[in-house]
Amino acid sequence: MIVLSIGLNPSPASVTAGYYFAGRNNRFWPALNASGLPGRVLRPGVDACRYLSETCAIGFTDVVKRPSRGAADLRVADFRHWVPHLEARINQASPRLLWFHGKIAYRHYLRCRQQAATDLIGDYRRTGSRVPGCFSVRIPVPPMPVSIYRI
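Above: the chain's sequence. Below: its structure in token form.
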């Protein structure tokens, strides 16, 4: 795996649909397509996630695996419980890039790891990582349009 895309937690819409970023107003898929990263335009769905995994070496996961309508519904105990599972997933997949979606996901991940080293690089935040050979980046999420960032 080259890239591991890490969201905060699954939305109820994503759980129901069976794929990541399934909300009808979610900007992820239009931004991803605008970036050109997948090499072709993808229609949101299970097949698009499979294509990204098998062809582009991009995987998906979350900091917390408990579905909720938003960050306000999550508790510190959720992060304490799920971050070790995320760490195991990262170690197993050995991605070259950890792609965090937003500072809430990233901040809680770091807090649970008790790591706070970050270097500001333009509008991105490059982060220290304890995963050998892995670079981490946090990108802004709405209301700032994600589509202005190209990977």
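The chain has five helices and six strands.
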